[in-house]
Amino acid sequence: MKLIAKHHALTRLCMTLLFIGLNLVSAPLLSSAITVGEKYRGGIVFYVDESGEHGLVAAKKNLAGRSRGMTAEEFTWYDAKAACTRFTTNGVGGWRLPNSSELRKLYEQRNLVGGFNHEFYWSSSREDEENAWYLYFYSGDENHEVKMASGRVRPVLAF
């Protein structure tokens, strides 16, 4: 009878230590979940997928600079793509021009991210060899335009 009681107490102690250990391991995982609106990797998270592990970050501001012959922050589609790949913030690279679906998600969170003009923003999605898709950040309308036209740029980063 004493052997059974000691065995039961030992089992209970082992189970308690196991649960404590699991809580110590899982607590940091739960608290490190990235959420929409959070500042992350030099930008602002505007989309997180169902897993909670992957999503998209937008740069905090429109891309600085311009294409030749255009006003500040206006780029041709070609220059927009190239400038996004060169863009870094806080030492973080890997930024790119969003595709049309990602740009739509960004538009839906435009008030959370902030700093958008009521103009059109380029996407990386092409209509054909001469045209690419954009989204007008005043109305949410999408259309395509010749790649040499001017548009605004907001780089994104996947995580």
How would you characterize the overall build of this protein?
This protein is α+β, with helices and mostly antiparallel strands and 159 residues long. The protein folds into two domains: 1-32; 39-158, Mannose-Binding Protein A, Chain A (Roll). 33% of the residues lie in helices and 21% in strands. The protein has four helices and seven strands; from the N terminus they run αβββαααββββ. The strands form two sheets. It has a four-stranded antiparallel β-sheet with strand order 1-2-3-7. Strands 4-5-6 form a three-stranded antiparallel β-sheet. A hairpin with a 4-residue loop joins β4 (120-126) and β5. It is globular and about 75 Å long. The termini are far apart. The model is unreliable at 22-31 (pLDDT under 50).
Outline:
The chain is of the alpha+beta class and 159 residues long. The protein has two domains: 1-32; 39-158, Mannose-Binding Protein A, Chain A. The chain has four helices and seven strands.
